[in-house]
Specification:
Length: 528
Amino acid sequence: MKKRSLIHNARILTQADGLVADSMAINGNRIMAVGNNLQHDPDFRSYSRIDVAGNTIVPGLVDAHTHFAYFAITLGQVNLHDLDSIDTCLKKIKSFAGKLSKDDWVVGEGYAPDRWKKRVEPDAATLDLVTGGRPAFLFSKDQHSCWVNSRAMEIAGITKKTRDPAGGKIERDADGTPSGVMREGPAIGLVFKHIPMPSKKEMARRYKMALDHAYRKGVTGVHSFDGPEAMTYYMELAQQGKVGLRVTYYPSADLLPYLLKEKIYYGTGTDFFRIAGIKIFSDGSLGSQTALCFNKYKGTKDNYGIEVRTVPEMKRLITQAAKLNLPAAIHAIGDKAVANVLDAFEAAPRLDFGARHRIEHLQLVRRADLARVKKLGVTASVQPSHCPSDIEMIRNYWGRRGANAYIFRTLIDRKIPLAFGSDAPIEPLDPIAGIAAAVRRARPGKRDVFYPEQRISAAEALYNFTVGPARAVGQEHCRGYVLPGYPADFVVLDRDITRVAPTRLYDTRVLATILDGKVMYADEYSAF
């Protein structure tokens, strides 16, 4: 695309009060004008013409909850997503391990006992049989459990005598021997910290693969909730001008001492890498049965989940972060965890300059707590793709309480601000699939709709993959819309997703992705 280009014969969904236009003018990395029949306006006579043949243009899609740097890392690991048994997982792990050097770690993610045809609890001894003496670490699909082998526990020094860390759990055999499964970050980290990072060259290769995938899916920006090591990586990319997406980063609360020492305030960064808050965990997840709930999990004697951070601990972290005007994005999946986070936010200091607190996931919430969410102005950062994926687990573990899970329609009707994401790599980085999930609340090709009264429209879902993420980070004045003065971040789709049948949403093709006025992806049918 030339520096000065006029795009016409389009259907442009600007996201501004339902405004639809048919043309827009771009100068460099900025949108100069949006309107109708601009190709006939003499002010743009010198602009190069691009006829998009009636296709639809939307703002650049932004995924409001990813682990993008880790997603890149996983592209060189063994992928166990969608495998339906422990045997198929072990077969794939063995094949992957056989291609490694004898001292390499076998690393992967995506195993899910709840989704196997027959639930089997994995253990170290079984993993030992296929890893050839190499240390092995495998994240569960939800990344709130890990499966490790004996060699990995030996390296980490985990024995019978190792106590459960606060906020974590080491699963054990009847005699107290660690089984090879750890629950939640404090326990997972005992092993994870020993895994070597990919080399710089290898990381660069994987990161490029992640960027290419994002562009093909129409993604121009992500909110990243990666671990502490990612901050250095992103900062290096930013210095080199190689971030490749508009990355809004929420460093772990563990980095607060560093942030305070270096005086890294809310908004620190560039157009492509910006600090917007801190990330805190209050509980675990549904799949690992560690999400903190008021009622116990169905089929258990006394499992209510895990309280990863107490309310006083969260209050302390929120107060410290506020010294830098940094809001908190707090992971809360169970209804008790959500209530705890709201208790902590109620004592939070005031923030300025559009800094907004968030609850990440807000998966199960008591209706009585919605008034508090609204009053506090908290953004509900939710992931529609989790909904169809979790239907069976919700029924099995929460039962009728599932009526309070993924209540998108209720949140919108209560005028609670939303920001949609995927939680990649836990679910695919694919906003169009996320939009379809929010609209249908059923797996592709299935008719089992999860509480259909909570469905929303495609237009509402699109808004929350564009304006919603911008507002969540205080940038709705400069991101999320196709309007004059805004960056030239937009996506060309092969159909108007707000006008097609819900079942056709999954078939939507991204024809082109433009970021900062540059064509990052264009398929063979694109005018770009």
